């Protein structure tokens, strides 16, 4: 095995034992990038030079605390001082932030080796990374298929062993759905667990930064690094952050797992259902109590989401007006024309569609019927979860209705694309944490098992996921990328 | 208002800049007058990914103001986004408060023709200021404009009144009282010229006796109390004329043009923005606990109305004096400090309202900027009381104090301005003047009062104003009657 194929905790052990250096890891990853990047196309920007500097500095110091010296990469909507942050949009193609996002600062403080910025659906709007203004990313398991989205570059880079782990952001499934499609572990923490400061906002009340890792232990390590209250983010929660590795106990005897039937209805591939069913049987074998339950408002989550998220986006994306940074149409005759043509040129069709949807939903005369009603639905969805968690430790459902679909398969059918997030969206509306872990395979393509927890109970999710991982062999399987 | 068949209905929307040290959602300085774009950061320039964090001082000032304006303080309020595109608005939305403002249902009192009148305060809410555009040349011919974001994110309070005012004079009195309250609270500088106090007016007219409101217009761009009064007078006349001619008032926003002394249409109701307000998801709702409100109430200083009553009751000052002395906190402080060392309030009040205010207005200065101290004024008053200088001399001493900041004793010494209260010195001078003017003596004896004044004037002239006036009177009377 090459170093790049190992997990962060395996590499950390070798670093501490002085068997290898951070530079060795970086070299291995760079070699992998050279081999596969032309096929996967996960990176928007490579920062080889600064990565080398960091690796060298860590090695000189020889202090391999936490995730120091481990090669990683960031979704390109996390602001990095001095390194362009594009959101995979023409609008920000040459935008270089003057500051670091809080999570980026934490990673720099930890001396994480950041190899670059990863492709995504433009402004995180999409489920396939086909909405990148630059190029689509491929699924390492089948290059003709999408890696999912919007954190498709993050999931693909980890699945292809180009980096050891990556950060993404999740507004309606944007970490978990690509994690499921690419066969890696993706965690969306509780809303407020991780500071959003420096994450270019899509829908502020739903956005949350999270991790894409090769296994559950790495997920706990990254969560340790990025979690915590931040005075720069009023919505981050001032609650104690436990050491998440404490929850890595392979024992779920007596755990109560609820299985809401609404997540197994029409539209969910029968073979995906079967994989999840087998996974749940496995949980029972391991001593958990698995029981069918109901989250009755699930069907209303998707329409409510497509009001709330675009409404917030229409306001969040209004600042891209050509005045202070980013693209500007310098030919425009006057300020109104400059605003209009800059935005017409800078945004792709999906971003425009959502801005228009959101603007409409907030317009006077429609606000009550759309936005206010959607907020009420959101409350009902949240109450469904509250009731379920009075009974169960975690809920288990498929992460996606199908395995990864083909590139172009859904790009012309907006609604069917939106449906691919049907099992992840309710979780963002409720603000609860959820993780996607490889739960099996269909035709050689990974299927994601989604575990949902109570607010701030990431530890419980990790324990269930870890137990499942240790008792199956789905986590750690590698795609047969044409390396040789 | 010349036309008495109509009455006007006026409501004011006032924006007061809060004088917190830092901006409302970031830690940048709020200081006025810095070089363009030197007091900015990623947050107040609306960089991608940044988030606002509330400056608690702003909330405290808002609560303070609400309490001073007799408002209810909301236990639960929230921030909303007001969305519109403009180059001086970095996020393309302004963080404001829409349907749940921090304060509502208050009032303040003004005195109109000797009667107390209550003007309702609908609401007080917090919001952020925008930046400012600097045009090269005129706004229509400019090849490009520059954006200065120093002011972006400076905290504002918007204070909205009920449509309770009926005349431009009432509107002006309301503004003066509101300004006085904000100054007493110390929450704002309230400088209309620098824009730290701004005011828009909603105005309509209706036939007297009618209870429904007429169609209103909104007037903007009034940069002084005088502009406010003039603009309202103009607009009321304009609306009455339209109604008299059988025409309809158009609901619109109009701007006051100071140079033309007239209002002009800016945009009609149909062109009005849809601001698409919605709760800002980046900020948590404001939950104000009652204990905090009570703690803030404890810190409220004496307010203008209470101070006015105190001046009337404790010092027996006329209402008018008390009102003028409580227009600003600084004026009242000046008066109070004088009274710590001096006994006669009316004399102090006369000097502050008279000479001091005259010189301040003449030189466009604030009372805090002037060189005369309360101690200096009191020292001068004592010199008058002791007979060292006359009231007339005091005027020129005061002017010198105002110009140079010197103490009155020093000025008197330097200029040799001591009052002559020595009978043996005055008598020969007066006797000579009487002797030199036999014809006027004749007039005096024939009962012409003017003649006496002539002699006083001549004596003062001969002594360069330094003769003790009372003594001059006594000696003159004696010489004229006895001689
Ligand atoms: Zn700032």
User: What CATH architecture of the domain at 3-251 in chain A would you give?
Assistant: Alpha-Beta Complex
Number of helices of chain B: 15
Which consecutive residue ranges of chain B, at least 5 long each, have pLDDT under 50?
Answer: none
The value of Rg of chain B in angstroms is 29 Å
Order of helices and strands of chain A: HHEHEHEHEHEEHEHEHHHHEHHEEH
Instruction: Find the count of extended strands of chain A (DSSP E, 2+ residues).
Output: 11
Helices and strands of chain A: which structural class?
alpha/beta
* Proportion of beta-strand residues of chain A: 5-15%
Strand order of the largest sheet of chain B: 2-6-7-10-1-11-12-13-14
Low-confidence stretches of chain A: none
CATH first level of the domain at 3-251 in chain A: which class? Alpha Beta
Mean pLDDT of chain B: 92
Q: State the strand order across the main sheet of chain A.
A: 1-3-2-4-6-5-10-11-9-7-8
The percent of residues in helical segments of chain A reads 25-40%
Description:
The complex is a heterodimer of chains A (484) and B (483). Chain A has 484 residues and is of the alpha/beta class. Chain A has helices spanning 8-16, 22-40, 48-61, 102-110, 152-159, 176-182, 216-226, 270-285, 298-316, 335-346, 349-362, 368-391, 414-419, 425-430, 458-470, and strands at 43-46, 71-75, 113-118, 165-170, 185-188, 208-213, 256-260, 289-293, 394-398, 434-442, 445-453. Chain A has an eleven-stranded mixed sheet with strand order 1-3-2-4-6-5-10-11-9-7-8, sandwiched between helices. In chain A, α2 packs antiparallel against α3 (48-61) and α5 runs parallel beside α6 (176-182). The longest helix of chain A is centred in the C-terminal third of the chain and has 24 residues, at 368-391. The radius of gyration of chain A is 21 Å and the shape is globular. Chain A starts with 7 loop residues before the first helix and ends in a 14-residue tail after the last helix. Chain B folds into three domains: 6-293, no CATH class; 302-415, no CATH class; 423-480, Arc Repressor Mutant, subunit A (Orthogonal Bundle). The A-B interface holds A 77-79, 85, 87, 92, 95, 97-99, 101, 196-201, 203-205, 231-235, 311-312, 314-315, 318-321, 323-325, 335, 339, 359, 362-364, 367, 371 and B 42, 45-54, 81, 83, 85, 87, 90-93, 145, 147, 274, 276-278, 281-284. The structure holds zinc ion. Zinc ion binds at residues 23, 26, 28, 40-41, 43-44, 153 of chain B. Zinc ion binds next to loops of chain B.
